[in-house]
Structure of Lipocalin-like domain-containing protein:
Amino acid sequence: MKNLKKILFVVALGLGMFATSCSNDDNEGETIVPLQGKYNLSKQGIVAPDGSEQLVDAPENASGCNRDYLELKLSNTAVIGDYDGANCALVETTGTYVRSHNDLTLVIGGVTTTSDIMNLTNKELKIKDKTTGIITVYTR
């Protein structure tokens, strides 16, 4: 009986140490949701002087067409899908992306943009361009 109590004590102690060693402090505020996926362009806007976000439906989405999209692949390939024109023709432009902590850098068509990842969930990617301050919201 004493051996069983010792074994249970050691197991409980080990589980307690394991649980306390697995904290979120190591990720420096990053989310653990994977960045890779296909995101539909949803909203765009700015942060107003009072600190509130002013977001509207993305004007790039052509009326009557599927929504434009951003696809981030495991191979660090980025694809921008743009539906345009009267027949909603899809034009895809391929480039690369790099994530460093909560920064997302896209290189598409020779143009480099770096954005802060404001929110990343299983349903949403919200980024803010570091140069222009424009907020873009994508949904999965």
Summary: Helices lie at 2-21. Residues 1-27 have pLDDT under 50 and may be disordered. The beta strands are 37-47, 53-57, 69-72, 77-84, 89-100, 103-108, 111-120, 124-129, 135-139. The chain has one helix and nine strands.
